[in-house]
Amino acid sequence: MSQQAYVRLFLQPVVDECEVMALALYRITRDGLVLAAAAGDEAGSAPASLPLGGCPAGTAARKGERRRVHEVEASDATLPDAASELIEPVIFDGLPVGALVAASGVPHGVDDWTAQLVALAASRLAPVLAWPDPAAALAAAEVVDGLSARFEGRFDWTGVYARTGADDLQLVAFVGEPTVHVRIPVSTGLCGAAVRENAVQNVADVRADPRYLACSLRTRSELVVPIRDAAGNAVAELDIDSDRAGTFPAEAVAVVEAAAIALAPHF
Questions:
Q1: pTM assigned to the model
Q2: Which residue from 214, 169, 216 is spatially nearest to 194, judged by alpha carbons?
Q3: pLDDT reported for residue 106
Q4: Among 128, 147, 151, 237, which one is least packed by beta carbons within 10 Å?
């Protein structure tokens, strides 16, 4: 099930937009790179595991360095029959957590457009791979993807943050532009207020609210809905930004609250 979710949410959309024979996602473990999922016509040829040293993909992932080769030697190719290849590290909060490998069967097949799409996928995958519970992270990714699609044009950034202790929130999954706020102190911003007060924060104009933690200059309104455990404590939250003021009427809030209830068992 997790492989299917990775493919549907992150990998297949990239493959559908570019000319690659395979796009493979690897997770960094103590034993090396372990294949999490792969998409494309040659997905089945992706190695199940790779060492962190001694091969280009492992070295690039470990160092957190992008590697694009327009004419890759067969001995250096991650996938058999690859003529060109891109290795995009997946980095969360400065630390490598995985890698995406895009392979093409023709020289120079991994073009700039493909590289851009792969980089965006890597940014979305970073918090998902970094969260210690893969099932919870994928559930969060499913929910934010669904909300973003349902409210397309209104929800410009949708994410899930979860508490990692008494004082911090960590980004688990998101849809939208990458954010620098992958960790947020509970004492800070509307996200912090939502878990401190265990209450919905619905701000029609963030420019008028001094608690707003600036992420995008375009953001005008923000909605933060707590995700509560069985005891009613706020253990996570859904955070949504909109580029329009007053985006979150009661019916939209109700939909997000229902999503928060559905996610609660995972946190």
A1: 0.94
A2: 169
A3: 95
A4: 151
